[in-house]
Design goal:
The protein is α+β, with helices and mostly antiparallel strands. The protein contains twelve helices and five strands.
Length: 284
Protein backbone atom coordinates (compact mmCIF):
# COMPACT_ATOMS: atom_id res chain seq x y z
CA UNK A 1 0.00 0.00 0.00
CA UNK A 2 1.13 3.53 -0.72
CA UNK A 3 2.25 5.55 2.30
CA UNK A 4 0.91 8.93 1.20
CA UNK A 5 2.12 10.87 4.23
CA UNK A 6 5.56 9.28 4.15
CA UNK A 7 5.84 9.78 0.39
CA UNK A 8 4.84 13.44 0.61
CA UNK A 9 7.27 14.11 3.45
CA UNK A 10 10.16 12.36 1.69
CA UNK A 11 9.54 14.21 -1.58
CA UNK A 12 9.45 17.58 0.18
CA UNK A 13 12.63 16.80 2.09
CA UNK A 14 14.54 15.74 -1.01
CA UNK A 15 13.23 18.70 -3.05
CA UNK A 16 14.21 21.23 -0.39
CA UNK A 17 17.68 19.66 -0.07
CA UNK A 18 18.48 20.30 -3.75
CA UNK A 19 19.63 23.66 -5.07
CA UNK A 20 19.15 24.76 -8.71
CA UNK A 21 22.90 24.62 -9.36
CA UNK A 22 22.91 20.99 -8.11
CA UNK A 23 20.77 19.96 -11.08
CA UNK A 24 22.08 22.32 -13.76
CA UNK A 25 19.35 24.95 -13.40
CA UNK A 26 19.85 28.73 -13.08
CA UNK A 27 19.13 30.15 -9.63
CA UNK A 28 17.59 33.37 -10.87
CA UNK A 29 16.82 36.45 -8.82
CA UNK A 30 14.47 37.03 -5.88
CA UNK A 31 14.39 33.34 -5.02
CA UNK A 32 12.60 32.57 -1.76
CA UNK A 33 12.32 28.79 -1.93
CA UNK A 34 14.90 27.03 0.25
CA UNK A 35 15.48 24.34 -2.39
CA UNK A 36 13.95 23.53 -5.74
CA UNK A 37 10.48 24.69 -6.67
CA UNK A 38 7.83 22.09 -7.40
CA UNK A 39 7.65 23.15 -11.04
CA UNK A 40 11.42 22.67 -11.34
CA UNK A 41 11.21 19.14 -9.96
CA UNK A 42 8.34 18.42 -12.33
CA UNK A 43 10.55 19.41 -15.28
CA UNK A 44 13.35 17.17 -14.04
CA UNK A 45 10.91 14.26 -13.64
CA UNK A 46 9.19 14.84 -17.01
CA UNK A 47 5.72 15.23 -15.51
CA UNK A 48 3.21 18.00 -14.94
CA UNK A 49 3.58 20.35 -12.00
CA UNK A 50 0.02 19.51 -10.93
CA UNK A 51 0.78 15.77 -10.82
CA UNK A 52 3.92 16.25 -8.74
CA UNK A 53 2.27 18.81 -6.44
CA UNK A 54 -0.56 16.42 -5.61
CA UNK A 55 1.96 13.82 -4.47
CA UNK A 56 3.47 16.31 -2.03
CA UNK A 57 -0.05 17.18 -0.85
CA UNK A 58 -0.90 13.54 -0.05
CA UNK A 59 -3.49 13.27 -2.80
CA UNK A 60 -3.77 12.12 -6.39
CA UNK A 61 -3.31 8.61 -7.83
CA UNK A 62 -0.66 6.14 -6.79
CA UNK A 63 2.37 6.77 -9.02
CA UNK A 64 3.19 3.90 -11.34
CA UNK A 65 6.55 2.17 -11.18
CA UNK A 66 7.60 4.14 -14.28
CA UNK A 67 6.59 7.43 -12.65
CA UNK A 68 8.33 6.48 -9.42
CA UNK A 69 11.54 5.71 -11.31
CA UNK A 70 11.28 9.08 -13.09
CA UNK A 71 10.90 10.88 -9.75
CA UNK A 72 13.88 9.01 -8.29
CA UNK A 73 16.04 10.04 -11.23
CA UNK A 74 14.77 13.61 -11.30
CA UNK A 75 15.53 14.11 -7.61
CA UNK A 76 19.02 12.63 -8.07
CA UNK A 77 18.38 9.89 -5.51
CA UNK A 78 20.94 7.30 -4.53
CA UNK A 79 20.03 3.63 -4.95
CA UNK A 80 19.10 3.37 -1.26
CA UNK A 81 16.92 6.47 -1.55
CA UNK A 82 15.37 5.15 -4.76
CA UNK A 83 14.44 1.87 -3.08
CA UNK A 84 12.92 3.78 -0.15
CA UNK A 85 10.87 5.88 -2.56
CA UNK A 86 9.53 2.78 -4.29
CA UNK A 87 8.41 1.30 -0.95
CA UNK A 88 6.69 4.52 0.07
CA UNK A 89 4.87 4.52 -3.29
CA UNK A 90 3.67 0.96 -2.68
CA UNK A 91 6.01 -0.83 -5.08
CA UNK A 92 8.73 -3.41 -4.78
CA UNK A 93 12.07 -1.74 -5.52
CA UNK A 94 13.69 -2.73 -8.83
CA UNK A 95 16.24 -5.51 -8.62
CA UNK A 96 19.67 -4.02 -8.13
CA UNK A 97 21.90 -4.95 -11.02
CA UNK A 98 25.08 -3.60 -12.49
CA UNK A 99 23.16 -3.14 -15.72
CA UNK A 100 20.40 -1.00 -14.19
CA UNK A 101 19.19 2.26 -15.73
CA UNK A 102 19.21 4.43 -12.61
CA UNK A 103 22.04 6.92 -13.15
CA UNK A 104 24.02 7.66 -9.99
CA UNK A 105 23.72 11.14 -8.43
CA UNK A 106 27.46 11.62 -8.90
CA UNK A 107 27.33 11.13 -12.66
CA UNK A 108 24.23 13.30 -12.89
CA UNK A 109 25.93 16.14 -10.99
CA UNK A 110 28.82 16.04 -13.44
CA UNK A 111 26.51 15.86 -16.45
CA UNK A 112 24.45 18.80 -15.18
CA UNK A 113 27.59 20.94 -15.26
CA UNK A 114 28.37 20.09 -18.88
CA UNK A 115 25.56 22.07 -20.47
CA UNK A 116 27.93 23.61 -23.04
CA UNK A 117 29.59 20.29 -23.97
CA UNK A 118 28.41 17.18 -25.84
CA UNK A 119 28.18 14.53 -23.12
CA UNK A 120 26.06 11.47 -22.46
CA UNK A 121 25.60 8.65 -19.97
CA UNK A 122 25.37 5.25 -21.66
CA UNK A 123 24.73 1.73 -20.41
CA UNK A 124 26.95 -1.25 -21.12
CA UNK A 125 24.65 -2.06 -24.06
CA UNK A 126 25.13 1.37 -25.61
CA UNK A 127 21.76 2.71 -24.47
CA UNK A 128 21.88 6.48 -23.99
CA UNK A 129 20.35 7.18 -20.59
CA UNK A 130 21.02 10.92 -20.39
CA UNK A 131 22.26 13.57 -22.85
CA UNK A 132 23.31 17.18 -22.60
CA UNK A 133 21.57 19.55 -25.05
CA UNK A 134 24.67 19.72 -27.24
CA UNK A 135 24.86 15.92 -27.34
CA UNK A 136 21.29 15.94 -28.66
CA UNK A 137 22.41 18.42 -31.33
CA UNK A 138 25.32 16.16 -32.25
CA UNK A 139 23.76 12.69 -32.10
CA UNK A 140 20.03 13.34 -32.15
CA UNK A 141 17.50 12.80 -29.36
CA UNK A 142 18.10 9.27 -28.05
CA UNK A 143 14.82 9.26 -26.12
CA UNK A 144 12.92 8.65 -29.37
CA UNK A 145 14.20 5.07 -29.56
CA UNK A 146 12.38 2.18 -27.92
CA UNK A 147 12.97 -1.53 -27.36
CA UNK A 148 16.14 -3.04 -28.78
CA UNK A 149 16.67 0.10 -30.88
CA UNK A 150 17.67 1.95 -27.73
CA UNK A 151 21.05 0.23 -28.13
CA UNK A 152 23.38 2.10 -30.45
CA UNK A 153 24.94 -1.22 -31.43
CA UNK A 154 21.59 -2.64 -32.46
CA UNK A 155 20.82 0.42 -34.57
CA UNK A 156 24.27 0.25 -36.15
CA UNK A 157 23.51 -3.12 -37.71
CA UNK A 158 19.82 -2.57 -38.48
CA UNK A 159 19.36 1.12 -39.36
CA UNK A 160 21.49 2.68 -42.15
CA UNK A 161 20.78 6.17 -40.77
CA UNK A 162 22.84 5.35 -37.69
CA UNK A 163 26.03 5.28 -39.79
CA UNK A 164 25.61 8.61 -41.57
CA UNK A 165 27.30 10.56 -38.79
CA UNK A 166 30.53 8.55 -39.20
CA UNK A 167 32.97 8.62 -42.15
CA UNK A 168 32.72 5.43 -44.27
CA UNK A 169 36.36 4.54 -43.61
CA UNK A 170 35.52 4.12 -39.92
CA UNK A 171 32.53 1.83 -40.35
CA UNK A 172 34.53 -1.38 -40.23
CA UNK A 173 36.20 -0.45 -36.94
CA UNK A 174 32.87 0.55 -35.42
CA UNK A 175 31.33 -2.76 -36.40
CA UNK A 176 34.19 -4.80 -34.96
CA UNK A 177 34.27 -2.87 -31.68
CA UNK A 178 30.52 -3.05 -31.16
CA UNK A 179 30.50 -6.81 -31.69
CA UNK A 180 33.52 -7.32 -29.43
CA UNK A 181 31.97 -5.21 -26.68
CA UNK A 182 28.70 -7.12 -26.84
CA UNK A 183 30.52 -10.45 -26.62
CA UNK A 184 32.40 -9.26 -23.53
CA UNK A 185 29.19 -8.14 -21.82
CA UNK A 186 27.56 -11.50 -22.53
CA UNK A 187 30.56 -13.28 -20.99
CA UNK A 188 29.98 -11.28 -17.78
CA UNK A 189 26.16 -11.31 -17.68
CA UNK A 190 25.53 -14.83 -18.92
CA UNK A 191 23.44 -16.54 -21.62
CA UNK A 192 20.09 -15.41 -20.22
CA UNK A 193 20.99 -11.71 -20.03
CA UNK A 194 19.67 -8.75 -22.00
CA UNK A 195 23.01 -8.67 -23.79
CA UNK A 196 22.54 -12.25 -24.96
CA UNK A 197 19.04 -11.43 -26.12
CA UNK A 198 20.41 -8.51 -28.13
CA UNK A 199 22.81 -10.84 -29.93
CA UNK A 200 19.96 -13.28 -30.62
CA UNK A 201 17.98 -10.47 -32.23
CA UNK A 202 20.89 -9.31 -34.38
CA UNK A 203 22.08 -12.67 -35.70
CA UNK A 204 19.15 -13.24 -38.08
CA UNK A 205 18.89 -9.57 -39.05
CA UNK A 206 22.44 -8.65 -40.06
CA UNK A 207 24.83 -10.66 -42.22
CA UNK A 208 27.66 -8.34 -41.19
CA UNK A 209 26.94 -9.02 -37.52
CA UNK A 210 26.84 -12.81 -38.12
CA UNK A 211 30.19 -12.71 -39.90
CA UNK A 212 31.89 -10.70 -37.17
CA UNK A 213 30.24 -12.72 -34.40
CA UNK A 214 31.80 -15.89 -35.79
CA UNK A 215 35.29 -14.37 -35.50
CA UNK A 216 35.08 -14.22 -31.65
CA UNK A 217 37.12 -11.01 -31.49
CA UNK A 218 37.18 -9.41 -28.02
CA UNK A 219 40.17 -7.10 -28.47
CA UNK A 220 38.82 -4.37 -30.76
CA UNK A 221 38.84 -0.88 -29.22
CA UNK A 222 37.65 2.59 -30.18
CA UNK A 223 40.18 5.38 -30.58
CA UNK A 224 39.92 8.34 -28.21
CA UNK A 225 39.72 10.63 -31.24
CA UNK A 226 36.23 10.49 -32.74
CA UNK A 227 35.46 11.79 -36.23
CA UNK A 228 31.91 12.82 -37.13
CA UNK A 229 30.38 14.19 -40.31
CA UNK A 230 27.57 16.38 -39.05
CA UNK A 231 24.89 17.45 -41.56
CA UNK A 232 24.86 21.04 -40.29
CA UNK A 233 28.50 21.87 -39.51
CA UNK A 234 30.54 19.23 -41.36
CA UNK A 235 33.55 17.29 -40.10
CA UNK A 236 34.20 17.27 -36.36
CA UNK A 237 37.25 15.75 -34.67
CA UNK A 238 36.48 15.33 -30.97
CA UNK A 239 38.35 13.64 -28.15
CA UNK A 240 36.18 11.29 -26.10
CA UNK A 241 36.91 11.08 -22.37
CA UNK A 242 35.28 8.30 -20.34
CA UNK A 243 34.26 8.11 -16.71
CA UNK A 244 33.12 4.68 -15.54
CA UNK A 245 30.59 3.98 -12.78
CA UNK A 246 31.37 0.37 -11.80
CA UNK A 247 28.30 -0.02 -9.57
CA UNK A 248 25.86 0.51 -12.42
CA UNK A 249 28.21 -0.26 -15.35
CA UNK A 250 27.43 3.15 -16.80
CA UNK A 251 29.85 5.32 -18.75
CA UNK A 252 29.91 9.09 -18.91
CA UNK A 253 31.23 10.09 -22.33
CA UNK A 254 32.44 13.68 -22.80
CA UNK A 255 33.38 14.97 -26.26
CA UNK A 256 35.75 17.95 -26.53
CA UNK A 257 37.57 19.74 -29.34
CA UNK A 258 41.08 21.17 -29.22
CA UNK A 259 40.71 24.91 -28.47
CA UNK A 260 41.36 27.02 -31.55
CA UNK A 261 40.92 24.10 -33.94
CA UNK A 262 38.47 24.03 -36.82
CA UNK A 263 36.43 21.43 -34.96
CA UNK A 264 36.30 23.73 -31.95
CA UNK A 265 34.82 26.53 -34.05
CA UNK A 266 32.36 24.18 -35.72
CA UNK A 267 31.20 22.87 -32.36
CA UNK A 268 30.66 26.46 -31.25
CA UNK A 269 28.69 27.05 -34.44
CA UNK A 270 26.50 24.01 -33.76
CA UNK A 271 25.80 25.31 -30.26
CA UNK A 272 24.93 28.76 -31.62
CA UNK A 273 22.67 27.36 -34.35
CA UNK A 274 20.71 25.38 -31.75
CA UNK A 275 20.62 28.28 -29.29
CA UNK A 276 22.88 26.66 -26.68
CA UNK A 277 25.79 28.19 -24.75
CA UNK A 278 28.85 28.60 -27.00
CA UNK A 279 31.70 28.33 -24.47
CA UNK A 280 32.52 24.81 -25.63
CA UNK A 281 35.89 23.15 -25.76
CA UNK A 282 37.58 25.23 -23.07
CA UNK A 283 41.18 24.25 -22.33
CA UNK A 284 41.65 21.57 -19.67
Amino acid sequence: MIDRAGLASFLRQRREALQPEDVGMPRGQRRRTSGLRREEVAVLCHMSTDYYSRLEQERGPQPSEQMTAAIAQGLHLSLDERDHLFRLAGHTPPTRAAAGEHVSPGLLRILDRLEDTPAEVVSELGETLRQTPLAVALFGDASRHTGAARSRGYRWFTDPDERRLYPPEQHDLHSRVLVANLRQVIAVRGPGSRAARLAELLLPRSEEFRTLWAVHDVGARFDDLKVFTHPEVGRLELTCQRLHDPEQSHMLLVYTAVPGSESHERLRLLAAVRGYPVTVGAPD
